[in-house]
Amino acid sequence: MYKKLIRRTLLALAAVPAMALTSYAHAADTPLKVGFVYVSPVGEAGWSWQQDLGRREMEKNLGDKVKTQYVEDVPEGADAERVIRDLAQQGNKLIFTTSFGYMNPTLKVAKQFPDVKFVHSTGYKTAPNVATTNARFYEARYLAGIVAGKMTKTNIAGYVGAFPIPEVLQGMNAFIRGMRSVNPKAEVRVIWVNSWFDPGKERDAALALIGQGADVLTHHTDSTATVQVAEEKGVYAVAYHSNMIKFGPHAQIAAVTHHWGKYFTKEAQDVINGTWKPDSTWGGLKEGMAVIEGFGPAVPDDVKKLVMEKRDEIIAGKLTPFDAPIVTNEGKTILAKGSLDDKGLNQMNYYVQGIVGKLPTSK
Q1: CB of 290 within 8 A of CB of 135?
Q2: Is there a cis peptide before residue 325, judged by omega within 30 degrees of 0?
Q3: 115: Cβ–Cβ under 8 A, 6 or more apart, which residues?
Q4: What is the pLDDT of residues 250-284, one digit of tens each?
Q5: In angstroms, how far apart are the furthest CA atoms of the chain?
Q6: H-run or E-run covering 146
Q7: Measured between alpha carbons, how far is 147 from 160 in angstroms, rounded to an integer?
Q8: Residue 239 CB contacts under 8 Å (≥ 6 apart), including other chains
Q9: Are 283 and 263 in contact (CB under 8 A)?
Q10: Which of 75, 114, 160, 206 has the fewest beta carbons under 10 Å from its own?
């Protein structure tokens, strides 16, 4: 009897390392279930489209190691919390929540499911099982501004904005700084639609900006409405999130695009390997997470060449979109020398010189 008891004890102790290992690494014989939450419909272009391209790239890269699912068009707030929780309850061990307003719902659900890993896009709060990611969109925005500054005839660009948060302001301010680097007379006029995805509001805003003299339009919203308006009205457009040239074959002069597949693949592989960490990733042109592409037929070769030269300078660290001096459109000096650091970028709450109007209170 004692021999049997000792044998059972030894067997139990021998099993402990294996049990401990499974708490860190995903079981190799079952696919990792990965869930995604999208703020807008996947559609054919835009923010959620690019996120879904990343999901599909991850599936292609990892094959039967992963099994994915997604829920699209999920409003920020209580609905997001419900959807995130439901994905965790369905056995997803890695969940990507892909909109700024999902930050607090993600953190709340993460506390309830400590064995699930979460990655929140565009946020700034982490937890033991919550990582964050973002792309340095503003780097490519600066380059798009160079194109716009060269192509405009009225010296006015129109910008359809979602919400006046740092991420959006980084892009907006980088865009006008790019414009003014080649065209000191350039200015940007802004209309806020207070939505990430509302094609009707985006269309109305784009039309109003043309009425204010803009002959180049761009947007930090999810739909193709702004590019389509530009195509209809014979003005230029800089697409955002994804290449929208099929919606504006004559209008589009460039596209600022975001690429997530490599990052998603790494996060999933890290969970599988048991090496996942709740870190913060912010990648730009150098990492291939932000790209300038989709130059339209109207853009001269010399402009494209200049943009590529400036892109290489940013990648090499010789240039940043926010090198001093940085002055607000109300005349306040933000930075007299050097370059704005990440803390400054993430606290951005002003318009720089060249943007017309007063910044509204953030959401």
Answers
A1: yes
A2: yes
A3: 23, 93, 129
A4: 999 999 999 999 999 999 999 999 999 999 999 99
A5: 94
A6: helix 137-151
A7: 18
A8: 45, 218, 224, 227, 245, 247, 248, 252, 254, 255, 256, 257, 294
A9: yes
A10: 114
Instruction: Please list, residue by residue across 215-233, b when 16 or more beta carbons sit within 10 angstroms of its beta carbon and e when fewer do.
Output: bbbbbbbbbbbbbbbbbeb
- Residue 143's Cβ-count burial label (10 Å; 0-12, 13-18, 19+) is buried
Determine the Cα–Cα distance for residues 39 and 296; give it in Å rounded to an integer: 29
CA distances (Å), origin 159, targets 102, 153, 226, 266, 343: 25, 16, 9, 34, 25
What's the distance, CA 68 to chain centroid?
20
Q: Which residues of 150-159 are buried (b: 16+ CB within 10 A; e: fewer)?
A: bbbeebbbbb
Total-model pTM: 0.87
Which helix H or strand E contains 97, and what residues bound it?
Answer: strand 94-97
Whether 238 contacts 217, CB under 8 Å: yes
- pLDDT tens per residue, range 183-240: 999 999 999 999 999 999 999 999 999 999 999 999 999 999 999 999 999 999 999 9
**Contact status, residue 138 vs residue 171, Cβ threshold 8 Å:** yes
Tokens of 269: 């592989």
Query: What single DSSP character describes residue 251?
Result: T
Q: pLDDT tens for residues 42-96?
A: 989 899 999 999 999 999 999 999 999 999 999 998 999 999 999 999 999 999 9
The SS3 call for residue 106 is helix
